[in-house]
């Protein structure tokens, strides 16, 4: 009986336990089955979107970690795809937003752009967290982009800086190797001597005549690096063989002194040769002069005269004077002036040369007349009133530019042209780029000489009075102010009437006499011109006359383009081989290189 009651109790307990367990399960299942067609599908899709977005976040994290481990590769790819060969600068980033802030950049096929949600109310809490995480990732990538670009610049700039110093490192190694080689006793033929000589030859072959790394190709750079490594090991051996630093210091000082002496000697020799070339007439110009002279004397006497001689002394016309023995240079001056003139029929050129070049000069302009302009050719030897003793004996110099009578003839303009009131003096090494008739309209204010000033400090043409005139002489210090402004010859407008009133030619003779007794000035016409026209010069606009094309003066291109006259002052004249190539085209455009005589005399562009 007791056993039965016990089993009954256990059965009842088990039934109650089963009911308590199964009833909630049945109720929950029926509830889900009723709402499966409405909200169940949405929750299921939401769960799938959450899973997908979590996968994207994991992929982005993997990409970001991958970028952190190897930043160099994508940045270098950006530089290679760009138009510039060098590293991307900050300016280029500002100009090109695609480099600094990518709009649709994708890495490894995953879109990293931000997408704003349409409706915040439709997002569940996990979706908001995922979106926030994605936005943070994108912001972090955008902030880190300039740092990556900067790191990419450093990646490229460090090898570039290293490449820029390869040639210098090679030169340093060669100097050290030669210094160690000098420590070896003469006549020694040890293995070390053979090795270091071989290394020196290999390095010299690898570098060649290169002075900067851009002169070397990639193959030469790699070869040089290999030879430098081999030289390093050899120099390490040498430092062990010769450990005394004091001996090395003495040897390097001696080598430095010898190199400086050789450099000074080479500079002096180069300067001498350049000046010698500037004073030498090219062979082609000699040939041209001889052919023209022969042609001139083959003409009948009546054909040897130039036309329109009645215009030579007409004061109402525009008169230009050129004193030269260079046929080609005079041709360029005349052609450039006439080609830019507004009224070429009113232009008269007066060319004065020596008796040797008079036939050639005349023949050239007879066969190549200057358009509607008039030209007169005269010989300095026909001026009987001219006292050559003042010109040839008072200034002693080896440079014919200073001792030539034609160079000092400018101080006799009123005597050469007694019927003229104004005249423009042009040097034979100028090119006219604009109409010059406006010079006659300048108000001279009672001055004799109109010229461009050269007293502006910092300019390439800057000159002071004491650079050419000896102010230690009491006479000079009393009459002249060392701070007075200087000016240039080459393109000057002269008022001949005022010149005659002030008798400045006599003043020129006076200073020339004083200079023969004591050193008052340097040779040439410029210092004595400053003294003669002191307080008689009118400053004109700098654009009328731009100097500095006959030497490395640093004259700016915009100044040349705006100039009325450009001047090849200096020894590097445009008709010489030593002339500056960048300035020669301005002169060459006014030379007729197709002329048969120029072709026969090998005068080419």
Provide a descriptive summary of the structure in words.
It is a single-pass type II membrane protein. It holds the Pfam family GAUT_1. One of its GO terms (molecular function) is polygalacturonate 4-alpha-galacturonosyltransferase activity. Its EC number is 2.4.1.-. Residues 88-132 are annotated as: Disordered. The chain is of the alpha/beta class and 605 residues long. Among the domains are: 174-180 and 190-278, no CATH class; 283-600, Spore Coat Polysaccharide Biosynthesis Protein SpsA, Chain A (Alpha-Beta Complex). The protein contains 24 helices and 11 strands. The strands form 3 sheets. A 7-stranded mixed β-sheet has the order 5-4-3-6-9-8-10. It has a two-stranded antiparallel ribbon with strand order 1-2. Strands 7-11 form a two-stranded antiparallel ribbon. Helix 12 (327-340) links the parallel strand 3 and strand 4. The chain is elongated.
């Amino acid at each position: 009986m007791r056993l039965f009651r016990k089993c009954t109790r256990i059965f009842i307990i088990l039934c109650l336990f089963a009911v308590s367990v199964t009833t909630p399960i049945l109720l929950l299942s029926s509830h889900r089955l009723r709402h499966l067609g409405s909200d169940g599908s949405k929750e299921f899709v939401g769960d799938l979107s959450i899973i997908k977005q979590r996968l994207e976040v994991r992929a982005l994290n993997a990409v970001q970690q991958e970028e952190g481990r190897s930043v160099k590769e994508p940045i270098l790819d950006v530089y290679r795809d760009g138009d510039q060969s060098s590293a991307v600068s900050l300016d280029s980033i500002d100009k090109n937003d695609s480099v600094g802030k990518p709009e649709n950049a994708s890495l490894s096929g995953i879109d990293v752009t931000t997408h704003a949600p349409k409706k915040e109310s439709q997002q569940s809490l996990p979706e908001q967290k995922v979106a926030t995480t994605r936005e943070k990732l994108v912001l972090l990538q955008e902030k880190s982009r300039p740092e990556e670009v900067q790191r990419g610049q450093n990646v490229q700039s460090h090898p570039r800086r290293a490449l820029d110093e390869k040639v210098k490192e090679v030169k340093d190694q060669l100097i050290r190797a030669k210094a160690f080689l000098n420590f070896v006793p003469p006549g020694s033929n040890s293995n070390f001597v053979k090795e270091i000589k071989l290394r020196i030859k290999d390095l010299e072959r690898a570098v060649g005549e290169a002075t900067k790394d851009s002169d070397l190709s990639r193959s030469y750079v790699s070869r040089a690096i290999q030879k430098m490594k081999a030289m390093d090991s050899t120099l390490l051996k040498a430092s062990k063989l010769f450990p005394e630093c004091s001996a090395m210091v003495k040897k390097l000082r001696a080598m430095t002194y010898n190199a400086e002496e050789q450099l000074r000697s080479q500079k002096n020799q180069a300067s001498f040769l350049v000046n010698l070339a500037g004073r030498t007439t090219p062979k082609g110009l000699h040939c041209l002069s001889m052919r023209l002279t022969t042609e001139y004397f083959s003409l009948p006497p009546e054909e040897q005269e130039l036309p329109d001689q009645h215009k030579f002394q007409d004061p109402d016309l525009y008169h230009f004077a050129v004193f030269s023995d260079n046929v080609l240079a005079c041709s360029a001056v005349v052609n450039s002036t006439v080609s830019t003139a507004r009224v070429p029929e009113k232009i008269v050129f007066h060319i004065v040369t020596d008796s040797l070049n008079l036939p050639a000069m005349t023949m050239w302009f007879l066969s190549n007349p200057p358009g509607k302009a008039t030209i007169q050719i005269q010989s300095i030897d026909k001026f009987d009133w001219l006292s050559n003793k003042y010109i040839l004996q008072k200034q002693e110099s080896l440079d014919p530019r200073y001792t030539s009578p034609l160079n000092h003839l400018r101080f006799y303009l009123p005597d050469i042209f007694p019927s003229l009131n104004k005249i423009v003096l042009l040097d034979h090494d100028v090119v006219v780029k604009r109409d010059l008739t406006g010079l006659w309209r300048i108000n001279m204010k009672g001055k004799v000489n109109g010229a461009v000033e050269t007293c502006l400090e910092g300019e390439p043409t800057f000159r002071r009075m004491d650079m050419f005139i000896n102010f230690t002489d009491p006479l000079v210090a009393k009459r002249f102010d060392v701070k007075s402004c200087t000016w240039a010859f080459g393109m000057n407008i002269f008022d001949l009437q005022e010149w005659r009133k002030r008798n400045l030619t006599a003043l020129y003779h006076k200073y020339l006499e004083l200079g023969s007794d004591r050193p008052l000035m340097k040779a040439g016409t410029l210092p004595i011109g400053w003294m003669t026209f002191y307080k008689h010069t009118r400053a004109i606009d700098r654009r009328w006359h731009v100097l500095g094309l006959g030497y490395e003066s640093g004259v700016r291109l915009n100044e040349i383009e705006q100039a009325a006259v450009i001047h090849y002052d200096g020894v590097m004249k445009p008709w010489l081989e030593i002339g500056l190539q960048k300035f020669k085209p301005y002169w060459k455009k006014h030379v007729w290189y197709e002329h048969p005589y120029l072709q026969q005399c090998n005068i080419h562009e």
